[in-house]
Structures are given as structure tokens and as C-alpha cells.
Design a protein that fits this description.
The chain is mainly β and 322 residues long. It contains four helices and 22 strands. The protein has helices at 2-18, 288-293, 297-314, 318-321; strands spanning 28-31, 40-46, 56-62, 68-73, 79-85, 96-102, 114-120, 124-128, 132-133, 138-142, 146-151, 154-157, 162-163, 170-177, 181-202, 206-208, 213-222, 226-230, 236-239, 244-247, 256-264, 267-278. Strands 8, 11, 12, 14, 15, 17, 19 and 20 form an eight-stranded mixed β-sheet that branches. A hairpin with a 2-residue loop joins strand 11 (146-151) and strand 12. The longest helix is centred in the last third of the chain and has 18 residues, at 297-314. The two termini are 81 Å apart. The structure holds 2-acetamido-2-deoxy-beta-D-glucopyranose (NAG) (6 copies). One 2-acetamido-2-deoxy-beta-D-glucopyranose binds next to loops.
């Protein structure tokens, strides 16, 4: 209420001061006295004083010939002065002047709508499990499009950070949306360090002397792991890119622990597998763990095992094993 009263008073005050000038004073044209052909002459238009400075006044000289270099001055005795290239044919030419109130709106910008367009959105992304990442698809358009990428109803906002999980691998659909929507497929591969799933021993970890035995190591990793085995005793061969270790004609010297090592650029994992060799002297017992304690074989294993520990330390693998 207070505001309205103030504004009303303010408007009335302006109208009262400017009331006299709602009709502008008549502008006056001023020409030079002595005008010669093939020369320049100045033409001016002056508006007699208006005390009300709240309104801007525009002055315009009207004539049939071309006016040049017009210079305006605002304020009291507002005026405009132009020059004319004089020719002898211009004798009797008329000049007059118009005065207009000038008001101006606040500027408004034109908004042009353009469809979204991906400018930088790679087809393939490679992430690493456990690390922070996000989609970073750039799209242009007016209004500025919002970008999301989704797979199986899980939606990620562009540039939204998250910790990468294995199950984030797959085909995503990225969308850029303003008044229109466009999509593009993006393939995400999540890489991770190896995890050893199993070591399969055939025929079994309990082998008869002279038999053949194979151990196959299975690890899950992206990119696929490189396999190796320790120790590499005599008569040992490797197959399937080192995944399988084969011992032909097992002797008691082969008894002990074998370590599968699976490695990729994100890490290294090890898993051990024991082999127990049955000589003909020993009866097969139900519990293989107990059978090792018998005779002098415990020592054998100990020696083999401490060799193994030494080997691991030398290979810096001790940490991974324990
Ligand atoms: C035009 O206006 C300016 C500034 O008010 C003044 O200095 C100048 O004398 C005026 N020119 C004429 C021709 O009235
Ligand atoms: C008026 O004369 C000036 C030089 O005196 C010249 O630069 C200009 O181009 C002329 N303008 C016209 C419209 O002839
Ligand atoms: C997404 O869903 C499809 C079927 O609905 C399924 O086959 C696929 O494994 C799912 N992908 C992921 C990464 O969950
Ligand atoms: C991935 O697994 C987590 C739980 O482990 C689950 O919350 C998330 O929705 C899964 N993401 C996808 C894309 O399947
Ligand atoms: C062990 O493998 C060798 C060579 O592959 C083969 O000649 C031999 O018969 C195998 N021994 C047994 C017990 O299967
Ligand atoms: C197999 O392992 C040996 C060492 O144990 C290594 O020199 C060789 O490059 C490996 N081969 C493959 C195909 O990984």
C-alpha cells in the first residue's frame, strides 16, 4: 500500500512538471547565410529549452537531399547538425525539422531454439573398478540440453560422479534433451584386477607316483590375466597360455605347493594348490592331510614349503599370498 502511494505521488509529480511539455516546443531550423555551390554547408535544428529532462527528444532534419555527418546534442537546447554537399540546383531547397519524444524499452534478446547435438561423446569408455568416474558427453543446443546415460533403468546424470562397479559394463543409451531428444549408444567396459576362481586338479591332489597330473587355474579379470606357475619343477609343461600345468610321471620330488599367479595391469593375485604323491609303500588313507604326517614325508613338505616361501619373498609375492 505504502509503495503504491509513493509511486502515485511520483508519477503525478512528473506529470505536473512535464505537463507543459506534453506538446513539444516547435524546433527551429538554422541554415547558413552564404551558401556557395561545390562546398559543404551546415544545417542545424535546435529545440527551445525543455526543462523536463525525464524525456529524451529525437530531432530529425527532413529534406530531399542526402544529409551527412549528423551530430546530435542532448539536454537543454537539444540540437542536431548535419552537412550537405551543395550544388547550384539546390537553390530553393526546403529543410524542416521534426521533434519526437523518445522512449525506449529494456532490451530483450531473441531466443532461437536449436535441437541438441552431441559434440563430444565417445562411443567406447573404459573404466576401472573401484575408481571414481562419470559420463562426460558434451551436447550443444538452445536451450542448453541436459544429458543422461542409462542402462537397464539405471540413469546416470552427465558428470555425476560414482564409484565404478563391475556390473556397470554394458551398452548404455545417452540422451541429450531440450525441446527435442537425441540418443546415442555408448559402450562401457569395466576393467578389474584378477580374482582366482579355482584351481582344478586332475585326477586329484592325491596322485600315484608315475601318474600324470594337471592343474588348471581359472581367474576372472579384465583385461584377461596372464598366468604363470611357481615353482617350475622338472618334467613340468604348461598349456592353454600357462593356465594349465602338467606334470608327467610324478615323483615324490613333485610333492608340495604350486602357486598359480594371475596378473593384469590392475593387479596380481595368487592361489596355492597342494600335490601329495602316493608312493606304493604307503597305503591310501582316508584323510590326505593325515597321510603327509606319516614317515619322513612331513620333512619333505616342510623343505618344499620353506623353499617356496623363500621363492615368494624373492618374487615379492609373499604379500599377496598371505
Ligand atoms: C547544440 O548543443 C550543444 C550542447 O548543448 C551546444 O553547445 C551547442 O551550442 C548547440 N548548437 C546549436 C547550433 O545550438
Ligand atoms: C560530399 O563531399 C565530400 C567531400 O567534400 C565527399 O567526401 C562526399 O562523398 C560527398 N558526398 C556526396 C553524397 O556526394
Ligand atoms: C540388462 O538387462 C538385460 C535384460 O533385461 C540383461 O540381459 C542384461 O544382463 C542387463 N545388463 C546388466 C549389466 O545388468
Ligand atoms: C550393480 O550392483 C549394485 C549392487 O551391487 C546395484 O545397486 C546396482 O543397481 C547395479 N547396477 C546395475 C547397472 O545393474
Ligand atoms: C602320461 O603322459 C604321457 C605323455 O603324454 C603318456 O605317454 C603316458 O601314458 C601318461 N601316463 C599315464 C599314467 O597316463
Ligand atoms: C608362461 O609362463 C612363463 C614363465 O612361467 C613365461 O615366460 C611365459 O611368457 C608365459 N607364457 C604365456 C603365454 O603367458
Amino acid at each position: 500500500m505504502g509503495n503504491t502511494a509513493v509511486w502515485t505521488f511520483f508519477l503525478i509529480s512528473i506529470l505536473r512538471v512535464c505537463r507543459v511539455h506534453t506538446l513539444l516546443p516547435i524546433p527551429i531550423i538554422i541554415l547558413e547565410d552564404q551558401v556557395r555551390p561545390n562546398a559543404l554547408t551546415e544545417v542545424s535544428c535546435v529545440l527551445p529549452s525543455i526543462e523536463c529532462r525525464s524525456f529524451e527528444v529525437e530531432l530529425k532534419i527532413i529534406t530531399t537531399e542526402k544529409l551527412e555527418n549528423c551530430i546530435s546534442h542532448k539536454g537543454d537546447y537539444a540540437n542536431v547538425t548535419c552537412t550537405v554537399n551543395v550544388t547550384s540546383e539546390m537553390n530553393g531547397m526546403e529543410f524542416s525539422c521534426e521533434a519526437h519524444f523518445r522512449t525506449k524499452s529494456k532490451p530483450q534478446k531473441m531466443k532461437i531454439q536449436t535441437e541438441p547435438e552431441f559434440t563430444d561423446c565417445p562411443d567406447k569408455l573404459i573404466w576401472t573398478e573401484g575408481q571414481e568416474n562419470s559420463f562426460n558427453c558434451k551436447a550443444l543446443g538452445h536451450p542448453s540440453p541436459t544429458v543422461t546415460c542409462e542402462m537397464n533403468n539405471t540413469i546416470y546424470k552427465n558428470e555425476e560422479k560414482f564409484i565404478v562397479m563391475k556390473n556397470m559394463s554394458g551398452e548404455y543409451t545417452c540422451r541429450a534433451t531440450n525441446f527435442d531428444t537425441i540418443t546415442k549408444p555408448v559402450t562401457v567396459s569395466v576393467e578389474y584386477e584378477p580374482r582366482i576362481l579355482s584351481i582344478v586338479v586332475k585326477p586329484s591332489m592325491l596322485v600315484m607316483e608315475g601318474a600324470n597330473v594337471t592343474m588348471t587355474c581359472e581367474a576372472d579379470a579384465v583385461p584377461p590375466p596372464i598366468y604363470s606357475w611357481h615353482p617350475q619343477t622338472p618334467h613340468v609343461t604348461f598349456h592353454h597360455d600357462n593356465r594349465t600345468l602338467q606334470i608327467k610321471e610324478v615323483t615324490s620330488a613333485h610333492e608340495g605347493f604350486y602357486i598359480c599367479i594371475a596378473q593384469n595391469k590392475h593387479g596380481i593375485k595368487t592361489e596355492q594348490q597342494r600335490i601329495i604323491v602316493e608312493t606304493e609303500l604307503i597305503e591310501k588313507e582316508k584323510d590326505p592331510a593325515l597321510s603327509v604326517q606319516g614317515k619322513n614325508r612331513g620333512e619333505n613338505i616342510k623343505v618344499t614349503f620353506s623353499n617356496l616361501v623363500a621363492l615368494l619373498i624373492s618374487l615379492n609375492l609373499f604379500y599377496y599370498l598371505w
